[in-house]
Specification:
15 helices; about 325 residues; disordered N terminus; mainly alpha
Length: about 325
């Protein structure tokens, strides 16, 4: 039984690289920074005796403006750095807590002492990949929301592949500065893929309300998930479609009956199926593959009118 659970057959070429990577990450990770014991609060006046430059800039930050306006909680130097009596006596950096040099967990916990609504609401990606709040925020910054960069430029620093997609022919106008990433995404947590709504569908319909319905004749993907047909960031195809029409339609729908007929080169106006209506000629397949489905099925998100000329469940025609 013992032989069955030993890992002697695990390839050594996998063990050693993983071990080396673990050692390197451990050595590079910031040490745990404990608040000095027996330290007392001395007030920000004592801090400003040496750090007067920070005191001047702090009043221009969102935290400093909150203090001037008398909003609670009051933020001072020791709100983030901890009690400073030991540091004021010795002048040693080791005698004060510095969130900027702490690890991501300590940074997050420090910020969450005031920003409790964000506690536990971080998604996996930003919590574990980002190096703490300071990857996106600079506490002593005058920028809006203390951000390192403004607008979507901050997000593009990590999400470079999304930045490229916004250069596609069809895209949401983020690069044109008419939208920002945070208009759709909650960076501190949220629904699917950090969306600001519970689902991606609800998020899309918050702007595209005309696609919501309800309709008498509904298109099932619209009620499920918009990303079945659309790439929300950008696409080569029109209207953010993941594939050009008619091929995106044919990925779910079988070909119409007239598309299975043999194609010929000569012109023809003979109706092979007069009872079905429409111009179903011998070159029907050629016409179908070179014609968009939306030329007839214009109401692809849903329709309140029955299909024209043919029997069936609506057909999503105009």
């Amino acid at each position: 039984m013992v032989n069955k659970i030993r890992f002697v057959n695990f390839p050594a070429r996998f063990v050693y690289p993983l071990f080396i990577v673990a050692i390197v990450l451990f050595c590079l990770s910031p040490p745990l920074m404990a608040v000095p014991e027996d330290a007392d609060y001395v007030g920000e006046e004592a801090c400003l005796m040496c750090h007067d430059a920070y005191g001047e800039s702090f009043g221009k930050t969102v935290h400093g403006r909150a203090n001037i306006a008398g909003e609670a909680p009051v933020v001072s130097c020791e709100s983030c750095h901890g009690p400073g009596s030991k540091h004021t006596e010795s002048g040693e950096p080791a005698d004060i807590f510095n969130p900027g040099k702490a690890n991501s967990y300590e940074q997050t916990e420090t910020c969450n002492t005031c920003h409790e609504k964000l506690k536990g609401n971080f998604g996996f990606s930003h919590l574990d990949i980002a190096g703490g709040c300071s990857d996106c925020h600079i506490v002593h910054s005058e920028n809006e929301q203390l951000l390192v960069k403004q607008g979507s430029d901050l997000c593009f620093g990590c999400h470079v592949e999304v930045r490229g997609v916004f250069s596609m022919p069809s895209h949401h106008p983020v690069l044109e500065d008419r939208l920002q990433c945070y208009d759709c995404h909650q960076v501190h947590g949220g629904g699917a893929k950090f969306t600001s709504m519970d689902t991606e569908r609800e998020l899309c319909l918050s702007c595209h309300v005309d696609k919501q319905g309800p309709f008498v004749f509904e298109h099932d993907p619209v009620n499920e998930d918009c990303s079945i047909c659309h790439n929300p960031h950008g696409s080569v195809a029109d209207n953010l479609l993941i594939q050009a029409d008619p091929f995106i339609c044919m990925s779910c729908h079988p070909l119409h009956f007239h598309t299975s007929l043999d194609g010929v080169e000569e012109e023809s106006s003979i109706r092979l199926h007069p009872d079905r209506g429409g111009l179903f000629t011998k070159d029907g397949f050629k016409r179908s593959m070179l014609t968009k489905c939306t030329q007839c099925h214009t109401q692809i998100h849903g329709s309140d009118l029955p299909a024209q000329s043919i029997s069936g469940p609506g057909g999503l025609t105009r």
